[in-house]
């Protein structure tokens, strides 16, 4: 059954929707020209010196309306929403058809079905730790050698074909033998507001927020590599044919190939901060329709 044919379960019936697990939230400096292609013309991109703040959110949920699944959210950048700002997702990859359907239809996200495979290179082991992000993505042992790593390979799945998207190499040396209460970081509560929509599945502009409670600590940024095969036959790199656009009856945006290439470019941009979220409880509020964007939304202050 294709994603568009999947039916949402009763777990998604009544918002807000609760997700529990762990995640890595990594912020990157993204070129404004790369991010701006994803942002609807109604909004102003928050930028300085030609860059905006984007990155990715890599999560493993062990309890959610769609059950257990992995998610990679590529964040193109930040758009102005006085008096604060909101994130804009360039691409969302999940290994759950049900979560993909819900993201597309209900949240207005550019969701894709993907496969997540995990591989580890271990040179030295230390004692077990519980509830770390590395445990949650499928590795139950903490490591202490700085050369050890866990590679999360993400590949998009469409019909019967699979296409490499990226590989995220997680450093394992961030874990040590101190007590969880100290090393897992403080308990924090935060709200992450986002805009969405303007897709072929949901052409309306939407705004929603994620209410998060978790333990947070700064960790060494993960290293990201692109597809193992060239994305264009001319060998001109990931961002080829950037000016190519397509127009649908109600939706104007990037071509599928261009959107994918730009999303990979966001992942390959320079990391500035990585935060590990453990004991994560994320409550996703139902989106509201942004019926008419005000002048302030467009111009900022």
| Biggest sheet overview | 7 strands, mixed, barrel
Spans with pLDDT under 50 lasting ≥5 residues? 1-6, 140-144, 173-182, 231-251, 294-301
Summed over residues and divided by their number, the pLDDT gives a mean of 82
The CATH class designation is: Mainly Beta
Strands in their spatial order, largest beta sheet: 1-2-3-4-8-9-13
Strand content: 35-45%
User: Cα distance, first to last residue?
Assistant: 47 Å
The counted number of beta strands is 14
Which architecture would the CATH scheme give at its second level?
A: Beta Barrel
Radius of gyration: 19 Å
**H and E order:** EHEEEHEHEEHEEEEEHEEH
Shape: globular
Number of domains: 1
Structural class: mainly beta
CATH superfamily: Acetoacetate decarboxylase-like
The helical percent reads 10-25%
**What fold name goes in the CATH topology slot?**
Acetoacetate decarboxylase-like
The number of distinct helices, counting runs of at least 4 residues, comes to: 6
Describe, in plain words, how this protein is organized in 3D.
By secondary structure, this protein is mainly beta. It has a single domain (about 5-300), classed as Acetoacetate decarboxylase-like (Beta Barrel), CATH 2.40.400. About 15% of the residues lie in helices and about 45% in strands. The protein has helices spanning about 30-35, 95-105, 135, 180-185, 255-265, 295-300; strands spanning about 15-30, 50-65, 70-80, 85-95, 110-120, 150-160, 160-170, 185-195, 205-220, 225, 245, 250-255, 270-285, 290. A seven-stranded mixed β-barrel has the order 1-2-3-4-8-9-13. It is globular. Residues about 1-5, about 140-145, about 175-180, about 230-250 and about 295-300 have low confidence and may be disordered.
């Amino acid at each position: 059954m294709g994603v568009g044919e999947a039916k949402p379960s009763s777990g998604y019936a009544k918002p807000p929707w609760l997700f529990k697990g762990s995640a890595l939230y990594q912020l990157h400096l993204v070129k404004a020209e790369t991010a701006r292609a994803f942002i609807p013309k109604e909004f102003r991109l928050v930028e300085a010196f030609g860059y905006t703040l984007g990155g990715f959110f890599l999560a493993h949920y062990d309890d959610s309306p769609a059950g257990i699944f992995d998610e990679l959210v590529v964040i193109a950048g930040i758009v102005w929403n006085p008096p604060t700002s909101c994130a804009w997702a360039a691409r969302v990859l999940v290994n759950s058809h049900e979560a993909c359907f819900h993201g597309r239809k209900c949240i207005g996200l550019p969701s894709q079905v993907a496969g997540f495979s995990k591989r580890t290179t271990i040179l030295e082991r230390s004692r077990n730790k519980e509830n770390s992000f590395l445990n949650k993505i499928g590795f139950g042992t903490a490591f202490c050698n700085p050369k050890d790593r866990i590679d999360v390979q993400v590949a998009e799945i469409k019909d019967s074909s699979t296409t490499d998207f990226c590989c995220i190499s997680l450093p394992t040396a961030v874990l040590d033998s101190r007590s969880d209460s100290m090393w897992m970081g403080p308990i924090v509560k935060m709200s992450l507001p986002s805009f969405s929509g303007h897709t072929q599945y949901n052409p309306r502009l939407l705004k929603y927020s994620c209410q998060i409670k978790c333990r947070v600590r700064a960790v060494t940024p993960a290293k990201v590599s692109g597809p193992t095969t060239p994305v264009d036959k001319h060998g001109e790199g990931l961002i080829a044919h950037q000016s190519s656009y397509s127009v649908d009856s109600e939706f104007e945006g990037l071509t599928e190939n261009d959107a994918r290439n730009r999303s990979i470019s966001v992942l390959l941009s320079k990391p500035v901060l990585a935060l590990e979220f453990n004991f994560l409880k994320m409550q996703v509020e139902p989106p509201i329709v942004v019926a008419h964007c005000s002048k302030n939304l467009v111009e900022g202050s």
